Amino acid sequence: MKFVDEVRVEVHAGRGGNGCVSFRREKYVPRGGPDGGDGGKGGDVVFEATDRKQTLLDFRYKRSYRAQRGRHGQGKDKHGRSGEDLVLQVPVGTLVKDALTGEVLADLNRPGMRWTAARGGQGGRGNARFVSSTRQAPRIAEEGKEGESKDLVLELKLLADVGLVGFPNAGKSTLIAAVSAARPKIADYPFTTLVPNLGVVAYGDASPFVMADIPGLIEGAHQGAGLGIRFLRHIERTRVLVHVVDAAAVPRHDPLEPYHIIEKELLQYSKKLAHKPRLVALNKMDLVSDSRDREWLLQIYESLGHPAVAISALTRQGLDDLLKAIVEVLELTRRRAEKEDDSEPLAPLEKTPPWLVP
After folding, report:
1. Residue 197 known to bind ligand
2. Is 284 annotated as a binding residue?
3. Residue 41's domain spans which residues?
4. 314 annotated as belonging to a binding site for a ligand
5. 114 and 261 assigned to the same domain
6. What residue spans of the chain are helical by DSSP H?
7. Residue 173 annotated in ligand binding
8. CB atoms inside a 10 Å sphere around CB 195
9. Are 186 and 192 in contact (CB under 8 A)?
């Protein structure tokens, strides 16, 4: 299935039905009064979030959507039927923006959440509505009103608990494939991953969590370099970031360089990312032959103040330690959120990472 995370669409609500000009005509009522019915209301265009969709692919092939118009009124005081609403299902996590101004109009971040994008026009009044003491036989009726029309941009931001970030070919796809049922394309060249991948990870008795692997970042990504800004949006909603570092390729003169480059790109893209908890996964440790080098790298990355775990996604070494660390940090973030929302402060957390200290 092709992954599409941004599309532009036009939505048109239904026009209201026209009111009717009619007079009562019966055998013994030669001069019956007006009995023209009202037109029906036009249908609305509604967006609904569903977890059955993971992409905006359906909107790539059809860009214009129109709801049903209202039926016209009829004689004998018969009102026209209202047009049916057009319900368009989108993946959970879809933002709806005004195509001209970029203003966010709706954030459909929960299954079943609905937002009315365009309201149908009101039906016109029939001539029975215009009777007065001075006008007993009105021969006028209203036309139905036009429905709203809007030019919109749909932008999908994936909802995941954990986001994997790092350079191309750092081993993110291999990692998500090793800990979940996700099966991304894996190869030994950069930019193998061209679209985000989601995987559900289960570890021990902890609640399963969703992990997202986005295409690799390079310097200048926040300005669009590489695949750049197109996919950075998908880590904005994650609760925890995992920096995947190719331990076999770090420069000896500055082993933290890969981390700092990615960190700089994240922060220049969004200041909110600065406050997200982080872990470091030193991947491909099986290719670092000297044990002293492995210990040296681990100590350097631990000095950042984030949990750092030595792993090999290919041989599955260290994955239990990494998943245990992720589960612990997810639990800490959950308790921290409860602490902020609750008037009763929680007991101090053991081994609280520095970025969680108020």
Report:
1. no
2. yes
3. 6-156
4. yes
5. no
6. 58-61, 172-179, 229-232, 257-269, 291-302, 319-341
7. yes
8. 19
9. yes
Q: Is 283 annotated as a binding residue?
A: yes
- Is 215 marked as binding a ligand? yes
Q: Which two tokens stand for residue 65?
A: 């959507």
In a domain, 1, yes or no: no
Query: What is the longest distance spanned by two Cα atoms in the chain?
Result: 109
194 appears as a binding residue in the annotation: yes
pLDDT per residue, tens digit, the chain (358 aa), is: 456 778 999 999 999 999 999 998 877 776 778 999 999 999 999 999 998 887 888 898 899 999 999 999 999 899 999 999 999 999 888 999 999 999 999 999 889 999 999 999 999 999 999 998 888 889 999 999 999 999 999 988 777 788 888 888 788 888 888 888 655 444 443 444 456 777 888 888 888 888 888 776 655 544 544 454 566 777 787 889 999 988 888 888 888 888 888 888 788 777 777 778 889 999 989 888 788 888 888 888 888 888 889 998 888 888 999 999 999 888 888 877 666 554 444 444 344 444 344 3
313 in a labelled binding site:
yes
Of the residues 122, 156, 190, the one at which a domain ends: 156
Residue tagged 């700089």 (tokens): 264
Number of domains, the chain: 2
Nearest CA to 280 out of 311, 250, 243, 254 is that of 243
* φ, ψ of residue 165 in degrees (nearest 5): -130, 160
Q: Can you tell me the distance from the alpha carbon of 70 to that of 129, in angstroms, rounded to the nearest whole number?
A: 18
Can you read off the two tokens belonging to residue 140?
């006028």
The CATH number covering residue 266 comes to: 3.40.50.300
180, 74: one domain:
no
**Last-in-domain residue among 130, 156, 182:** 156
Residues 195 and 104 in one domain: no
214 in a labelled binding site:
yes
- 85 assigned to a ligand binding site: no
Residues 144 and 246 in one domain: no
Confirm or deny that 192 is annotated as ligand binding. yes
Residues 181 and 151 in one domain: no
Question: pTM of the predicted model, to two decimals?
Answer: 0.67
What CA–CA distance (Å, rounded) separates 312 from 320? 11
